[in-house]
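Think of the structure tokens as a kind of shorthand, similar to the way a musician reads notation: each symbol stands for something richer, in this case the local conformation of the backbone. In the example below we present two proteins back to back. Begin with the first one, reading the sequence and then the tokens, and try to describe in your own words what changes along the chain.
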Amino acid sequence: MIRQYELVEKVKSYDPDVDEDLINRAYVFAMKAHGTQKRASGDPYFSHPVEVAYKLTQYKLDAASIVTGLLHDTVEDTDVTLDDIEASFGKEIRTLVDGVTKLSRLEGKSENLNQAENFRKLLIAMSEDLRVLLVKLADRMHNMETLHHIKNPEKRQRIARETVEIYAALAERIGMRNLKEELQDLAFAELYPEARESLVTRLNFLREEGAAELEKTLKAIRAKLDEAGLKDAKIYGREKKPFSIWKKMESKNIEFEQLSDIIAFRIVVDDVQQCYHALGVIHAEWHTIPGRFKDYISTPKSNGYQSLHTAVLGPGQQRVEIQIRTQEMDEISEYGLAAHWSYKQGPNSKNASAARDGKQFRWLRELLEILEKSSNPEEFLENTKLEMYHDQVFCFSPKGDVLAFPRGATPVDFAYAVHSGVGDTCVGAKINGRIVPLRTKLKNGDQVEIITSKSQTPSPSWERFVVTGKAKSEIRKYVRTQQRNEYITLGRAVLTKTFKQEGEEFHENAVEAHLPAFNKKSVEDLLAEVGEGLISRQQVLEVVLGQKKAAPENSGLLSSLSKPFRKKKDGASTPMPIKGLIPGMAIHFAGCCHPIPGDRIVGIVTTGKGVTIHTMECETLENYSDAPERWIDVAWERDQTDARHVGRIRAHVSHEPSALATVTNVIAKEMGNITNFKIINRSIDFFEILIDIEVRDLKHLGNIIANLRSKEVVQSVERYQT
């Protein structure tokens, strides 16, 4: 364990004017607070905050950050309160400790909800002062280093996954590459120990076998730079970490032997001009590999990373990856945000305040926007993971502004990144001056122009192809708002008709007086739940009119929402199309996945509706994963020759004369019957349409799709499931 004087001396080594008394008092305060507490390893608990504080000294952080590292667990794990912290160390340190401290575990809440709530708190705190994040990352690093002492394997796995998905991603966002890679490697060892061990063994072998080749390449690069007058340039090789190698193998589905960039060479020079000079020397001597040059100096990454990346066929015609940067760029690539920290400027200086303010970072502002738009903590956490952890592509606006996106991003993601208003009114897009469908994936260097219309609104279908958390949260917010408005309208119509049947007139003012009985704050909240079916109209009648009698629930507006299989008017029974159900049981085909014969299906028991049939691939089934008693094993009856079932397809069709006629003619020739046809999006050059078609089975629908794909006017067509 680091001793008190060692910690103080370490801070003094980079900040001679540090307040020694402050650190000494915090050291003693934390030691007394944690007392005889032990960690899972059996070590004194106090050893943990001391190690966290020492890790912060490696990034040359200020005294307030070091003190926060020492005190960060006192409020969570001891009797110390935030008021005690403020009384002893001041308001600034109280705020930092509060930001790092987790929320108390919520009674009866799931582990995911607790994780989401705690992350929300951390995000808000670090948006005010990024030192909170630096302390939290140091805390997580030491916890990962001692993870093997936790006996519960499920808990170890959960902590490791959280580390990769959240904390390593946050470290990357603030440019702390070393810390990110260490966190990833520690998590990798827990999540996939065999895969990591295999990679480490291969790397050790490669290191031994390739030492001579590595030295040869270094000497060749050194000689060329010396000839060009760049004798002060530093050159060294850097090996990829096991986790990075594994991720690349997984994403590209390649073997270890197929990787060519396990070792990259780094050239560090004095200034930007020398960076481009060195690049010219390398490209003049060796053949470049097309598509592998990236200029992150003129176009830095969103976390501030700058460097030139290139790949050439070096000595012996071996592929060589080379990074070229200045000393300052190299420090920023290693330490990120911490490399900018200026502890000498004092806590009240303008520069120090700017360095601490998290809102200066675009990505953090976007996370805060997602927080505002998300309906619940778990949705926020899901969208945050999407926003934080991804490979990036860089695109340009028409004005030349650079925006970074995850791979797979579309013009809709771009539109929402510009402004939520641009995203909401997006009707089309131009990439490099050419109009493209909104589903088009963006590529590095694309210039994107968004076409908007005041009459446009977000399409719910966009959520199926956007990849950024911000776009998803904005679309979901709009859909929730629209859905709520529809429920309110339906609820008002239901109650108006119901009251009329009882000889009464429905007045919202009369209902408002009874809101406490339903635990609702507004009439609209009540109407929305009536429209959604969560509150019955009979309940409203009983409360408002004091009546027990109400109109039958299956009459009026709601009767057409769901029609189970019943007897025909002539008295003959409709044959049951599904095996595995009790004869006479009401069944419904799910509108989310539109199952048809040939699909693998499952039945879900739905209260008041009987059984709803879904395809086995339907995403809605995730909602019933915790209720296995509601699942029924079913299958299609073989004799379905006369039966017709609705399949839904989505197509992108050229906006030109007779294009829609071509689509409908193909369907008619294949003996499909169109029951619904809806244009869900249109631009200058394309229609996006949903078509419901009555077909015999999956093969019949497949034939229709295949024939549509053969037509020039059809850009794409696929089976559609919401």
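Once you have a description of the first chain, move to the second and do the same.
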Amino acid sequence: MSLIGKFASVGGATMASRVLGFVREAMIAAFLGAGPVADAFYAAFRFPNLFRRLFAEGAFNAAFIPLFAKEIEGGGPDAARKFAEQVLAVLLLSLFVLSALAMIFMPFLVSTVIAPKFIEDPDKFELTVVLGRIMFPYLAAMSLVAMLAGILNSLRRYFLPALAPVLLNIVLVSGLIAAGFLELSAPDIGMVLGWSVTISGALQLGLLVWALRREGFTMGFVRPRLTPAVKRLLWLALPAAVTGGITQINLLVGQIIASAQDGAIAVMNYADRLNQLPLGVIGIAIGVVLLPELSRALRAGDMKDAQHLQNRSLEFGLAITVPAAVGLAMIPEPIIGLVFERGAFTRETTLVTASVLAAFALGLPAFVLTKIFTPAFYAREDMRTPLWASLISVVINIAGSLFLFPRLGVSGIALATSLAGWISVVFLGTRLVSGGLFRLTAVTLKRMGLIVIASALMGGLLWWVEANFSAILLDAALSVRLSAVLITVLAAAVVYFGFAFMTGGLDRAEFARMLRRRKKA
């Protein structure tokens, strides 16, 4: 399977999760709007999600995969299994201690880190504490899921690890349907959401345990010991954990600042859900596939293949995210209104959420570029450079949020996050080029320029539609608005892909091969 085909496989699984995520968020918006229960749920969920990105996905995707690949090449499957068992033992012990401490001290964490301003509303504060305790075991389950996914990715099995998050949305949607049928109160719906998150973590873990057994890779339990291999992993994982979770760190910073404004946390999460669709589908697909592929190329000393992987990843990432960013920035109100505006989600909330979405969209290409650039460092076991980029991003985000929030409201926080993302990407790209780790080919440079031009043409069309048909897009009946938005998106896609394919901005032969493979499948 080609590189683009692997991206498509992971992206397709992630797309299924994101589509169900839209259903989930639309239902939460209808039941809870941007009220105190929605604020409490999203604030409580952000914390285990942050640690999952910092100490699980980010660290293991960056540090575990290259070391696991080295064990497979150097000692074979038995050596790799022994290394995985050692890591599993240390991970289980660490997760038990961390989870116990977090659940005990959850009131302190909510009042100091998660949402300090909630303390002014005792009911919201108490609900956040309870939900935080309920959902924190999700961190333990997802940390183990991240490790098992890393093993499967190293074995070139990408689809099931990417599909596992679908279970989160299936369980949450099922819980919301049951809550609606039983006509539960808003606080009770919050409790249903909390328990659904934890149950989904156990189900995802079970799925990947089954997937590994199907591959013939089983692990036993051993006594936790800091072996040289585990120490090497921890040494690499510490900076990688911070780097891998930088988006979550920036969102947490924004959440802390936004907790001063009622409904702001919920609004940021609704907007981020739409922003996460292209970011998750493309960014995660590239991040999942590129690191193990690049690690193998570098281990084999094949620099030509390594350069090819990076250039193709850059083309693929920009080809999807640049037009997506333009679309989300140009017509955010019709999209937000169509997806969320019903029940407790009012027109006023739509307009505020749309402004936040537009600000997030400005940084969308930067977030995907980060997923493309960082594997080049991780595959070489250089964790410090991405760490410096992350620290710069956090400083810019904090300063920008503190400056812009009093002036622009919650949109200022999203704008600061986007600005921080671009500054981080510029830093990473500069270091890659100056260090001789990456070189843009003439073909990639040409395609990048054509992608930008195609996106600009598409943006012009969207601006004209918004200027002349805003009443239909926002105020017509639901069926009319749905048809209008779909027609607008289809017309924009025709303009973008038509220009890109005709001028060579997109590789027609590669897309044709991918489509043929899907038809045969």
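Compare your description with these statements about the second chain. The first helix runs from residue 3 to 32.
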